[in-house]
Amino acid sequence: MNYPELTNTEIDLLDAGICPDCKSTKFLRGPCGGLSVNIACANPECHSRFNVTPGISGGFGKERISEKSPKCDPNTGLPTGSATGTLSFHEQ
Q1: Alpha carbon distance 16, 10 (integer Å)
Q2: Phi/psi at 68 (5° precision)
Q3: What is the pTM of this model?
Q4: DSSP the chain
């Protein structure tokens, strides 16, 4: 399935450990292989998913692997609830 390409702003946010859709800083770690790992936003109002290559900044090795969260405001990117904290990965 083809999902929208990440914009430069969205890539910058991911590089900073921030979900580009809801601005949460918490992610769940998913399957990994080779150099890449799947991550999902841990905000229950969002759950957007991405494939990233840790340690590499910029557009290489980053792609969206889900639709943008329908529960996030399209104008602000913020979810209906709040999402705060620090970047962390949790095994599911």
Answers
A1: 10
A2: -65, 145
A3: 0.73
A4: ---PPPPHHHHHHHHTT--TTT----EEEEEEETTEEEEEE--TTT--EEEE-TT--SSTTEEE-SPPPTTB-TTT--BSS---S---EEE-
* Whole-number Å distance between alpha carbons of 9 and 43: 20
Read off the pLDDT of residues 13-23 as tens digits, 9 standing for 90 and up.
Answer: 999 999 999 99
Per-residue CA distances from 6 to 13, 29, 84, 86, 91 (Å):
10, 19, 22, 22, 25
CA dist list (Å): 19 to 15, 34: 10, 23
Q: Which residue has the tokens 């910029």?
A: 58
Residue ranges per domain, the chain? 1-67
Q: Which single residue is written with the structure tokens 């949790």?
A: 90
